[in-house]
What we know:
The protein is an alpha+beta fold.
Amino acid sequence: MIWLRRCIFLLLIATAIIFLARDWSAQAASVPGDFVTVRYWEKWTGTEGRQMQQIVEDFNHTVGREKHIYVEYMSIANVDQKTLVAIAAGVPPDVAGLWDQQVAQYAALGAVEPIDDLARAHGITEETYVPVYWTGCHYKGRLYALVSTPAAIALHYNKAVFRERAGALRAAGCDPTRPPRTLDELDRYAAAIDTRDSGGHIDVAGYIPLQSWYVPFTPFWFGGELFDPASGKFDLDGPATVNCYKWVQSYSRRLGSAAVQDFTTTHLLDNFDSPQNPFLTGKLAMQQQGPWMANYIDHLRPS
Length: 303
């Protein structure tokens, strides 16, 4: 057993997990005295929180029992903020599941320590990782993170809405049996699907860039780079980034900024884990999301 006294390790996840400083000899009252207790905070709540609980229980009943390790799991809302407060207070958990953006944040604040040597000692090297994730685990050339749950974001589309708007899609030169493949097609598909109610409000939207958590990453679609590692500066006004946000703006110009604001306010992104999720209710035909969307469809609207 490697003793990690007051060491803090951050693990990326497309999302992230952190190993935080505390005495590894702490034991849970209900655990045999020769077991090491690992206190684990995780961001997942609801269905995902329960699924992580199942994973932890499976570990405790198998590998944990064999190696005398017990994971004490707790689902924590706003885990990134609470973990930072716990670090400052000197009472952090041993492991905390955070988001990928906390890697640089926590490292820059000095809240975590590099784990290059520890990872190498356990055979975790660059060769075991997809390059984009390995790079994301680093800050200023040092390893601060390891991947927990990587994911790729894709354009999800509602096939039922495409069938309902098949005539309008074909009139716009779009194929209702498949999703768009280019930005130009995305714009044409979205415009063909958009419908309004008698009051002029957006009833069904084909696609709205602002109805996404991933707007800050959209410049990549236009060949932009958000950050220059060499200079250590953000590139927020480069030509690609400007073109990106002009494209985002084009949707508000076409639909009307007030109408878009009304739609996004009515269909809050916070309603994601809800039967009112606009993608699941058919009010938003296309949306950027990750593979977890399958879980929400199965749970909230299997039809």
